[in-house]
Specification:
Blueprint lengths: L1 E9 L3 E4 L5 E11 L6 E8 L1 H5 L7 E13 L2 E13 L10 H4 L21
Antiparallel strand pairs: 1-3, 1-5, 2-3, 3-4, 5-6
């Protein structure tokens, strides 16, 4: 599955050791999806080696790919959203650039002013 949105929260890394003696770690993030009528918040996990590979910061626009899995424990069901890939969308290089520059449209060259007698300077 896939969802686009903005990272709005980065939770602390969690780690531990399984019953089998294997070390594990996970990072959790909260993404806000603004597509549709109402904004949706999705908390997701990067587990194992993905916790090291996927490092996100607040404010990044991302396209997240994930799997959903539910499991039962003592009569209650728990759902886990695990991210397996997260592509960071590129932001404009210069947010203060003119609109045509930000959109990637080249600007026309500036007019060349000559020093002829028939041309008048603006000052």
């Amino acid at each position: 599955m896939e969802i686009k949105g903005t990272i709005i929260q980065v939770l602390p890394e969690t780690s531990g050791v399984s019953k089998a003696g294997n070390a594990w770690k996970k990072r959790e993030y909260v993404l806000e999806n603004t597509e549709g009528n109402f904004p949706r918040k999705v908390a997701f996990t990067c587990f194992g080696e993905n916790a090291d590979k996927i490092q996100l910061t607040v404010g990044q626009q991302v396209n997240m790919f994930f799997d959903i899995e539910s499991r039962e424990y003592m009569g209650r069901w728990y759902t886990d959203i695990r991210c397996w890939r997260c592509d960071v969308e590129s932001a404009p290089a210069n947010a203060t650039a003119a609109p045509s520059q930000a959109a990637g449209v080249p600007l026309p060259p500036p007019p060349v002013m000559g020093m002829g007698d028939d041309e008048k300077l603006p000052f």
